[in-house]
Structure formats: structure tokens, C-alpha cells
Design goal:
It is a single chain. The protein is α/β, with parallel strands linked by helices. It folds into four domains: 1-59, no CATH class; 61-374, P-loop containing nucleotide triphosphate hydrolases (Rossmann fold); 384-479, Methane Monooxygenase Hydroxylase, Chain G, domain 1; 482-585. Helix content is 55%, strand content 13%. The chain contains 19 helices and 14 strands. Strands 4, 5, 6, 7, 8, 9, 10, 11 and 12 form a nine-stranded mixed sheet that branches. A three-stranded antiparallel sheet has the order 1-3-2. A two-stranded antiparallel ribbon has the order 13-14. Helix 7 (221-237) links the parallel strand 10 (210-216) and strand 11. The longest helix is centred in the last third of the chain and has 66 residues, at 538-603. It is elongated, with a radius of gyration of 44 Å. Its main location: endoplasmic reticulum.
Length: 604
């Protein structure tokens, strides 16, 4: 049997096990694998995997995509894949800890998560002292496996992935929890919209109990702005939750290059975080609000500074994660980072509204959350250009609308007398054209195509304002003010005349009906007057106005117009007849006069 090298990736470093452990069928120990007696005295024994049980302990599990990014920039949940993990009999009723890593694409998120997996696997069988010393890192030649990662500039992860190997831990208070590790699609790549990025970050933050915000080189203002946008997009979906919506946030600054300002690790990170999130009176209110918003979203916020892992990691396309290619300082900080995130005393069970969730309950929340982002209840997330262009166009709409309102106020405002309807419409057309021209002359971002919808909005606003001006102008018309009482008075006169005629012809019963109706109309007039005088019972007064308008528009008005038309037509005819008769009379008189004169002459 050949000797087994200590740096063989198949080898698992375990604490020294007595030789009686050879009775354990899970391991085959080989004395030939020992490098020296000194190593045995130090308590290290090399073992290799001999059956499936050990294989599960060393390299079990695989990444499972639970949220898929679709070509139409929507997201869908693989409920079957997620349920296969969360509904396992040994998982479903346990409290769950979800550790997620999110941030910009190609910044080493999956690379970091694989070290988390290595830590979680190794800490199952290492003593606290060994974990503290970094024994969980393994041998220098061991390759890094787990979530798929690679070098290069193109994105590698899409959607949201969950490692399907649960890690069981007991918290200091005795509660048993299951730890799950989540990888997310990188933000701001060339194939993702801002909404895509916001959705992935918001979903992972809503589901996770620990969100690691993976940053490069520093915590910059745009990093905080993106965090504000993404967390607000998640908080809108959790509008019913009380208190702070999210639990633990860790700013993980990669490739930190200023250790002379803030030392690597947690201590330096907390110092940097305090400076970046500091709120002072000298800051612009927008910057103050940004920092207050971030602190209001998370129950706990921390920061950790990691050095650069080395040029071999960054520039060698053949790099496979071997520790021998990674800078010692980076490895030392990994040894500090992992217990801070994953040690039992640091684990944070997922809770919602103050209650810890089990894995089975988390599945239902996941389903509910994905439906929110598949629907239309949340506003569209916009790029900075879109948001700025929208603000420019809305400002132009407001300026043009105010111009229209000012001009129309001078034409038919409250202090102006009644204006003929046709004249008012003519003035409206002129002022509307000037307002549209003013909108078009204001410099705006986004181009003409972007402004089309805002021009339509301006025209709709102007039309609504004109209708309001027209109603106000109509209220100044003398007849409009007394339209209701005049109409009802005319109805009373008609009813009185009909009732009298019916009484004269002996139809007293029908006459009484019209008289009773006339009394109701008189009561309506008195009620209308009381409503207008006291300002009470406005609904009753409005109802009487509507009845009067109906009677005038569809009965009395048409009858009055028809009568007027007939009178206007008949009057000229009558005048022509009278004129003809007069002329005929004059002619006859003249003839008679001449005849009388002739007769007188003859008689002489």
C-alpha cells in the first residue's frame, strides 16, 4: 500500500484518536500515513475517506439554485428544490440561521462562501483552541471547493443559490439551530437592470439573518446609497413589520489598502464604520438621512477589513484556491473572520416580528416574498439617470401648469366677472398653447421620447384645471345662480295652471294631484333656500339642484327653446301679413280717394 502524503486533498486532519478507534467502521487508519512520531505526539492523525459517511462529512452537499433569473428580468422560485432542503425531517422543525453574501459582481463572494463551508465542516470535529489557531483551513495544497467560482471579469452566479448541506449547531442557550449558507447574483453587471439588483439584494436581506455586504477597497458613498435603495426596496415589501426590519449586517471590505488608518480585522473595521456612518450637523440633510436610514434598518451593524489575498489569486487564471497561493495576512484574517460570523455564540436565528422561525416556516415566507416581487405592488426601481430625468420633466410640468393657472386666474379668476363660454374656451386654447411651449423650452434630461408621457400628463392636468375654471366661471352667471329656483318656480306655475284647468272641467281628483305635486315643489324650493342660506344639508341641496337641472335640460329647456323658435319664426310672418294688409288698405284707400275725387268733379 503506498504512502499517503500529508498534503493530499483526500486527507482530513483530525484530532488524535486512540488506536481503539480502529473499531469505528467510519475510518480506516493507516500507520504508514504518519509522517513522524512527533506528529503523533502532537495529536494529529491523517485519515482518508473510506466510505460514504466520511464523504458526507468532508465534501457533501452542492449549490442549489432556488431563485432563477429569467430572460425577461423576472425571478421565479424553485419551490421543489427549496422544499427538499427546508422540509427534511431533521431540518423542518429547527430554528434556522441564514448567512448570505451580497454585493457587486466579480468581487469574490463565492470564494468567501467556500471558506465559510470549510469552516463549518471542520468545526464539527475540531476543538475551540484548534479553530482559534486556524486548523480548519486545512493543508496548503488543498483546493477550494463548494460554490462555483472562477477568476475573470464576467459574472458567474445568477439568481440566488443555497448550499443544500445543513450544518447543525447548539447555541449557548441550548437551542438547536440549522445553519444554511446563501450565495447571490452579483449586482451591477452588464446584463442586470437596477430592479434586478435591488430584487436580489432585497430578497436575500429579507430571508437571511446575517447579511454580508461584500465591498471592494473601501466603504464609499455610492455603496451606502445602493444599500439604502436595496434595503428600502425590501422594507417596502415588509411594510407591516414593526421595529427594524432586518437583523445583522456585516460590511466586509475586501482588498483594504490603508491598514495605517484602520487595522485589518474587526477592530479596524468598526473604526472605519463609525466614521462612515457618523452623522454631524455639518453634513447635508440628504447625507444625514442616508445614514439614519441604514441604522434604522438593521438591529446590528458591523464591519470587517480584509487585506488583498495576493497577486497569484488575482492574476493567475489557474488559481484553484490552494492556501499556498494566498498571502499569509489574508489567511490570518480569515481565521479571525469566520468565528465572528459562524461561531455558535455569534449565530443569529432568523426571526420575524420578534419570533424565531423554523425552516418549514421560512419556506412559506420565501414563497410570499417572491410573489411580492413578481407582482406590481412595488414601484419600479430606476437608474440615477431615469430618476434625474423624471425629476427634470416633473419640474417642467409643474412650471408649465403654474403658468397656465396664473394666466387663467387673470382671465376668469375669482375676482373676474362672468365670461362668455365661447370666449373662455378661446382664451383657454391660447394659454394652453403657451404652457405647452413653455414646457418644451425648459431643458430636460432623457430626450424627447422620454418627455412624451410628461407632455401628456401636462395636457391632462391643464384640461382638469380648465374644467374647474369653467365651473367656477359658470357659477358667476346670474341665471346659473338662480337656475334651480327659477326652474322650480316655472314648474310651480305650470302645475298651478294645469290644476286650475282640471278643476274647471270637473276633473277635481286629477286637479288635486297636480296641486299636491305643486306643494311638494314649493317645499323643495324652501328646502333648497334653507340649504343655501345655512350651508347645511349640502347633499339634499345638491340633489334638488340635480333634479332641477334634469327638468330644465330635458323638459323645460327644450320646450322653452322650441316656443322661442316658433315665436321668432311666427313674428316675422305676422309682421309681413300685417304689413301686407296695411299696404293693401292704403292702396284701397288711395283708389277710393281717387274715385271719390273723380265723382266730385263730374258732379260739378
Amino acid at each position: 500500500m503506498p504512502l499517503i502524503r500529508s498534503d493530499d486533498p483526500r486527507i482530513l486532519h483530525l484530532p488524535f484518536v486512540p488506536k481503539s478507534a480502529n473499531n469505528n467502521p467510519s475510518f480506516h487508519f493507516c500507520g504508514l500515513g504518519l509522517q513522524s512520531a512527533e506528529e503523533e505526539e502532537e495529536g494529529l492523525l491523517y485519515a482518508f475517506r473510506s466510505n460514504s459517511n466520511l464523504n458526507m462529512a468532508v465534501d457533501s452537499g452542492s449549490p442549489v439554485q432556488i431563485v432563477m433569473a429569467n430572460d425577461d428580468h423576472t425571478f421565479s422560485l424553485d419551490e421543489e428544490a427549496l422544499g427538499a432542503l427546508l422540509l427534511r425531517p431533521d431540518v423542518v422543525h429547527k430554528k434556522v440561521v441564514i448567512v448570505s453574501v451580497a454585493g457587486a459582481f466579480r468581487k469574490g463572494k463565492s470564494f468567501l462562501l467556500d471558506f465559510m463551508l470549510r469552516y463549518l465542516r471542520a468545526s464539527d470535529h475540531l476543538q475551540p483552541a484548534e479553530i482559534h489557531q486556524g486548523a480548519w483551513l486545512g493543508s496548503d495544497s488543498q483546493t477550494l471547493t463548494g460554490f462555483h467560482w472562477r477568476g475573470g471579469s464576467d459574472r458567474d452566479t445568477t439568481g440566488i443559490l443555497l448550499w443544500n448541506e445543513p450544518f447543525f449547531r447548539k447555541l449557548p442557550n441550548g437551542d438547536e439551530v440549522v445553519v444554511l449558507v446563501m450565495d447571490t447574483q452579483g449586482a451591477f453587471d452588464s446584463q442586470s437592470t437596477v430592479k434586478d439588483c435591488a430584487t436580489v439584494f432585497a430578497l436575500s436581506t429579507m430571508i437571511s439573518s446575517v447579511q454580508v455586504y461584500n465591498l471592494s477597497a473601501n466603504i464609499q458613498e455610492d455603496d451606502l446609497q445602493h444599500l439604502q435603495l436595496f434595503t428600502e426596496y425590501g422594507r417596502m415589501a415588509l411594510s407591516s413589520s414593526a421595529g427594524k426590519p432586518f437583523q445583522k449586517l456585516l460590511f466586509l471590505v475586501r482588498d483594504w489598502s490603508f491598514p495605517y488608518e484602520a487595522a485589518y480585522g474587526l477592530k479596524g473595521g468598526e473604526s472605519l464604520l463609525a466614521r462612515r456612518l457618523e452623522v454631524s450637523d455639518k453634513q447635508h440633510p440628504e447625507l444625514q438621512q442616508l445614514r439614519k436610514h441604514i441604522r434604522s434598518c438593521f438591529e446590528a451593524i458591523h464591519c470587517f477589513l480584509l487585506p488583498h489575498p495576493g497577486l497569484k489569486v488575482a492574476t493567475n487564471p489557474q488559481f484553484d484556491g490552494r492556501l499556498s497561493d494566498i498571502e499569509p495576512e489574508f489567511k490570518a484574517r480569515l481565521v479571525e473572520l469566520m468565528p465572528f460570523v459562524l461561531a455558535p455564540s455569534k449565530l443569529v436565528p432568523k426571526e420575524i416580528n420578534g419570533r424565531d422561525l423554523t425552516a418549514g416556516e421560512l419556506l412559506e415566507y420565501f414563497k410570499a416574498y417572491i410573489k411580492i416581487y413578481q407582482g406590481d405592488t412595488l414601484p419600479e426601481v430606476k437608474t440615477m439617470l431615469e430618476a434625474t430625468a423624471e425629476a427634470n420633466n416633473l419640474s417642467a410640468v409643474n412650471a408649465a401648469r403654474e403658468f397656465y393657472m396664473e394666466q387663467m386666474e387673470e382671465i376668469c379668476g375669482g375676482d373676474q366677472p362672468y365670461l362668455n363660454t365661447q370666449k373662455l374656451e378661446h382664451e383657454h386654447t391660447i394659454v394652453q398653447g403657451k404652457a405647452v411651449q413653455k414646457f418644451q423650452e425648459i431643458p430636460k434630461m432623457g430626450g424627447k421620447e422620454f418627455s412624451v408621457s410628461y407632455l401628456q400628463k401636462l395636457e391632462e392636468d391643464i384640461q382638469a384645471a380648465f374644467e374647474s375654471f369653467a365651473r367656477h366661471n359658470e357659477s358667476k352667471n346670474f341665471f346659473s345662480s338662480f337656475r334651480t329656483p327659477a326652474t322650480l318656480f316655472l314648474v310651480i306655475v305650470v302645475l298651478y295652471m294645469v290644476s286650475g284647468i282640471l278643476d274647471l272641467v270637473g276633473l277635481v281628483r286629477y286637479g288635486n294631484f297636480f296641486a299636491l305635486t305643486m306643494g311638494l315643489v314649493i317645499a323643495s324650493v324652501l328646502t333648497w333656500g334653507a340649504c343655501r342660506l345655512t350651508g347645511t344639508m349640502r347633499e339634499v341641496g345638491q340633489f334638488i339642484d340635480e333634479i332641477a337641472s334634469f327638468l330644465w335640460d330635458y323638459i323645460l329647456g327644450p320646450l322653452t327653446q322650441e316656443a322661442g323658435h316658433r315665436m321668432a319664426t311666427a313674428y316675422p310672418q305676422q309682421m309681413a301679413t300685417v304689413a301686407g294688409a296695411t299696404n293693401a288698405a292704403k292702396a284701397a284707400y288711395a283708389v277710393n280717394g281717387r274715385q271719390h275725387s273723380t265723382s266730385s268733379t263730374k258732379s260739378r
